[in-house]
């Protein structure tokens, strides 16, 4: 009896020791000619006051600028993270070798994966083609009218907050989330959830609640533990299911048959025609709503921050008389470079042993990803002033600016929207939306960063100023 206990104990200790070694050291077959980021760096955002820029500058930047790729621990496994544009191009071009493999495959039992499932962003091969066939058109050719109407509503909401005061300080995340959500649900999904009408929106409240359940730093770092019957995670999972069911039913009940090209109608038709299963319908309906409002929201928050932080830039955008708005374009592109909404994405898995550049040999079955924050700030790519917010680097005339932007995307110097075959389908829509947003804000208000706001970006995950607070002062019409 005693020896059984003894051997069980030794077995458990050995297993734990093995698990710890697996976290501390990358697997033996990972390339030796690129550096390793110490495993604890991945947890600093959750357990210290450092933000992503601090962590990047202190622990990652030097190695990535020198080697263009590193080994990094993230989401319960070791991965290869790439920033060098030449390597990125190889990854983006070789879709079959660096195959998309989203959360539903990478961390299958996780609560996060149960939220977004298998969708057009994460799928590979035939499934990706099927999802794209259903929804690509509605994203690429949205109804843009709701954006104009919602921008007026946004201005009205801010004006109401200002009331008779000279200026008002507003934590902007919630308001802008509603604005972005209203835009995508009406313009692309074709459903009006009345997000901007009234004090509280059911849709907005539900999304905030379900996100608060999903995003827990410990379980994001160790999604493996989502597989255990831990009460808080069981609750999170059931809240996700509840939200998905509510949302899916709302798309079925409220999609607009007068708008046959809206994503709502396309998805419901595909479900009825049994082109998509119920789960595929839900997964794709969710990802449209999530990517379609979260990503533009992040960009709007960063834009708001740079306008408020740099009064001269704000004034130049305001004074721009050229209807093509070259300076505004430069400000947006520069914001995408320095604050790419999706800072790091690791969702590709090698389908065979392959090579990056001349000599980085990556074995089969390794997760690879890109770091937009790193590429955007790489001094080899953007020069020694890569850390300076400098819209002028994009040029003066609109043709020159747009051409530089286009080249930066093609060469993967600016992978904020990915690029190539798997490029973001919502780029044009998002750029239209944020241009409208910036013009409306600078046309109505003088904005500045509230002195009480602690200037930092998010500690982990998507990139934006954390909890941004802005002072709005109505412009005096001369
Ligand atoms: C500023 C806003 C946005 C940014 C920065 C952004 C960025 C990205 C990135 C980096 C990817 C590639 C993801 C990966 O590597 O797995 C992507 C893909 C995608 N995005 Fe966006 N996105 C934005 C807005 C939108 C919007 C508004 C929509 C509309 C619903 C959208 C729909 C998609 C879709 C469908 C894909 C997958 C394309 C494919 O693989 O065929 N995005 N986006």
From TrEMBL:
Q: Which residues cross the membrane?
A: 7-28
The question of whether NADP is a record keyword is answered with: no
Q: Which domain of life is it from?
A: Eukaryota
Question: What Gene3D superfamilies does this protein's entry cite?
Answer: Cytochrome P450
* Family, as annotated: Belongs to the cytochrome P450 family.
Q: Which residues bind heme?
A: 424
Question: What name does this protein carry?
Answer: Cytochrome P450-DIT2
Q: Which InterPro entries match?
A: Cyt_P450, Cyt_P450_E_grp-IV, Cyt_P450_sf, Cytochrome_P450_monoxygenase
Ordered alphabetically, the record's keywords are:
Heme, Iron, Membrane, Metal-binding, Transmembrane, Transmembrane helix
Q: Fetch the Pfam families from UniProt.
A: p450
State its cofactor. Answer: heme
| GO MF | heme binding; iron ion binding; monooxygenase activity; oxidoreductase activity, acting on paired donors, with incorporation or reduction of molecular oxygen
